[in-house]
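Attaching the record inline, Q. Sequence:
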Amino acid sequence: MIKACIFDMDGTLWDSAEEVAKSWTEIVKKEYPDFPEITTEDIQSVMGKTMDVIARLLFPSLDETAQMELLDKCCKWENDYLREHGGVLYPELEETLKILQKDYNLYIVSNCQSGYIEAFLEHYDFGKYFSDIECYGNNKLSKGKNIRLVTDRNNLDKAVYVGDIQGDYDATTKAGLPFIHAKYGFGTINANVPVINSLS
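Structure, as predicted:
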């Protein structure tokens, strides 16, 4: 039997909001000098949403094409920035992954752009802990469909998704998997689900 834990990224494994905000501000100021800087709070408010929604929320004065062009530039620079600088890992992350890996295959599914998960794995040398990853940026599929995709292509017999916001729970339900709420993250869940207050 293949048992698995599938993880969300932001608010579950790490908090990269401050570093993302710094990297995006560099691009936004270069492209649109009159735009306000992107704050950590701005990034935290949109984490977990798909990239098209993020573009619409953060760049409302631009038309859809310009929104996506600016977002694409931000995301490409963000990946390089995070690969070098990393983010803030939640306490005891690596220790927890080492323990879990003894009995479970580990995976990541996120609504992020292509290259974001890879930047996280490369900066911390965490690729050795995860068997597979998937994200919205690779295939434009919803998180629920990507959770199901990872479950099916890895022939997982028993899997659980760990995430921190309502959207994670909704996606997990659509994928037909049980859910664990990372309560230390960014959001609350409107459902009675198992909760963890820390990774350990």
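The chain has nine helices and eight strands. The radius of gyration is 17 Å.

More tomorrow.
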